[in-house]
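Need residues for this backbone.
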């Protein structure tokens, strides 16, 4: 466990920043062989300039609870690449449904993104979360049960 401070956009990307002191835990996950492709589609027309990263509103992308989203590394839009998807509000755990409604877009050329343009594809994989025992807990558990 680590004490961490989550820093997030409360209302919208570029809006009010909030901070939350909490505890973070490392844990693993297992990905099944089944996944889904979610299209990342622009919801607005927006002018972009080379090497000036912008936030682009997108149609909602739902990441179901107990799922992880990984960007497909293949470039889908001629003007640039999506480096991340985002949704404003308090961060949610992997166990909860997450709604992503903005794409962080890195343009490699000047131009206009049009509403309805395919920006990227996200791979959504269903995952089984494997919570790790706190450091030393496994050893303690074994010592209590198997005393030699």
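Answer:
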């Amino acid at each position: 466990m680590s004490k961490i401070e989550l820093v997030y956009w409360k209302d919208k990307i570029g809006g009010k920043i909030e901070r939350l002191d909490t505890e973070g835990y490392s844990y693993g996950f297992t990905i099944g062989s089944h996944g889904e492709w979610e299209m990342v589609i622009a919801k607005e027309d927006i002018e972009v300039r080379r090497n000036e990263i912008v936030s682009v509103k997108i149609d909602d992308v739902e990441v179901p609870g107990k799922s992880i989203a990984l960007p497909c590394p293949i470039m889908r839009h001629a003007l640039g690449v999506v480096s991340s998807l985002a949704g404003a509000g308090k961060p949610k755990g992997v166990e909860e449904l997450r709604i992503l409604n903005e794409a962080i877009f890195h343009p490699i050329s000047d131009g206009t993104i049009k509403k309805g343009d395919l920006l990227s594809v996200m791979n959504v994989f269903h995952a089984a979360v494997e919570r790790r025992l706190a450091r030393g807990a496994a050893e303690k558990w074994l010592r209590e049960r198997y005393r030699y």
